[in-house]
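Fold in tokens:
===
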Amino acid sequence: MTENILEMRGITKTFPGVKALANVNFAVQRGEIHAICGENGAGKSTLMKVLSGVYPAGTFDGQIVFAGDEVAFKSLSDSEARGIVIIHQELALSPHLSIAENIFLNNERKGVGGLIDWNKTNFEAGKLLKRVGLRDNPTTKINQIGVGKQQLVEIAKALSKEVKLLILDEPTAALNDEDSDHLLELILSLREQGITSIIISHKLNEIKKVADTVTVIRDGKTIETIAKKDVTEDRIIKDMVGRDLEHRYPDHEPQIGEELLRVEDWTAHHPQDPSRVMVDNVSINVKAGEIVGIAGLMGAGRTEFAMSLFGHSYGSRISGRVFMRGKEIKTRSVAEAIDNGIAYATEDRKTYGLNLIEDIKRNISMASLKKLEKGGLVNDNEEFAVANEYRKSMNIKAPNVLVKTGKLSGGNQQKVVLSKWIYSDPDVLILDEPTRGIDVGAKYEIYTIINKLAASGKGIIVISSELPELLGISDRVYAISEGRITGELPIDEATPEAVLKLMTMEKPR
């Protein structure tokens, strides 16, 4: 019988007004990959922060047993000293330091006189990089490598601490498919080296690929632990949301009206390299009540098209014409785009979509402060009332609208972004990766909101890397490749094969 390397017994963690964990029991066998699933806000990350000492002993109830010993970690350094290392979804690397410096930060390789031995540092870093499959020079600055490689540096950093239990919180959330596959293969290879891993993920296909065991958490409670042979997507989803999702996408009966938006011959050049065309002569249209999908591979120009149309030109050279209800409009700035009835919910909600240190109330109102202005001042009472109405109608899980937005789960942050733009009352709403990093239950809620917006007569453009999602919610799909629209399909003709063929169509040379 395989022994447990970790047991967490009766873990209860309470924040003011919220019980985040309620008598959670969780065990991990030595040498396995153990996945934790649950909706945003279910308590997954909180449980791992309890384990790693981010929430120190004494701030929660329950018992933690690691490698046969009861432990009471007061800090991250305490847990790391025992070989438990957590890699958070938000990577904690210093961008202006080298790869080697980041790997050994606070764990420096010292030589004579207590000074850092740089030759030893770079040599050992090189060996660690080889273990994780990264070929970059250890002296390369972190800000010169992509997010996928940065994730590998974090794992190399964990290996430098002689990790026994590696915790990865949504490790592929910001990665493309190639980088995700590489990371998952690395996690499997670490298992062969005797390293136990806990992986928190919403991506059920990834969990099925790597996990030996899956534990589902819902509303701060452990629902069940499932062996690999018994894992199915339907079972996990039912455990996560507390019900069967017979249909991943809510029923949608389109009531399509007159044309709202028409874009003709839209071309945008790269702001730093004017010779590089990011968006090449794109023409699209959107009707009232219609959900239009834009499909394309990473780097195809989807986001560049949306941002340039919304006035995020950043100095790039742009040409083309935009019409709203048949009348030509200008979108040379974000303010001008908003005034002309266009809203854009960015794919990067934490950087561009929200002010994470501001509360829910201000985030919802920030794009429409003119509507709340009285005598040159914002009417606080009205602002509070509006935000509270959206908190209830959008089912934003927070005790009140004064909660800092950065404290919310990803799904609830996305609802705040949508609330902000819905309150601005646009004619056309562009949603760029609206469900990225969100669990299946919250996704369903977002899809329902999109349907309601379309039913109210709004025109919706959805950009998504998940082809099943686009085909599940759209009425019509455009495909984009190398900055060009390569085809347009009504939804009844938009098979995965047909759309993929258009997405991979190369530009004539």
